[in-house]
Prior knowledge:
- The chain has nine helices and three strands.
- The termini are far apart.
- It has one domain (6-166).
- A three-stranded parallel sheet has the order 1-2-3.
- By secondary structure, it is mainly alpha-helical.
- Helix 1 (6-14) runs parallel beside helix 7.
- Strand 2 (114-119), helix 8 (126-143) and strand 3 form a beta-alpha-beta unit.
Amino acid sequence: xxxxxxxxxxxxxxxxxxxxxxxxxxxxxxxxxxxxxxxxxxxxxxxxxxxxxxxxxxxxxxxxxxxxxxxxxxxxxxxxxxxxxxxxxxxxxxxxxxxxxxxxxxxxxxxxxxxxxxxxxxxxxxxxxxxxxxxxxxxxxxxxxxxxxxxxxxxxxxxxxxxxxxx
Length: 167
């Protein structure tokens, strides 16, 4: 999760606004995995990846960056990836992750900030993302009374409109 210490970062971000927009993506789960001591199950070598991403071509070119992410075999350990996906089904780990997400909700609530959450799928496999985490995370926030935008639905509808307009 980008928020390594939720309350400190949220204080910096939210102190100037009455609105907080939290963009949730699959890798937000990684900080929970690290926190519980299972970082050896993460499929990415973050040091290697960060070195690669510092390349100016990838940093400043949307097209180059997009192409880079289309070829995961060069930066993902697929043996670990299967284990990583299984972690999403662990009730213990998901419970810990939801506690971290609840901290964000509680912070915004106690500081009278309106929280909006955008949940992004893995774009190369939207339906799989929905099953793995998008639906559960959207439901979690919605049950807490947080306004949630499931980006999967927008993308899915946009793709359908594009397909219909071509056909």
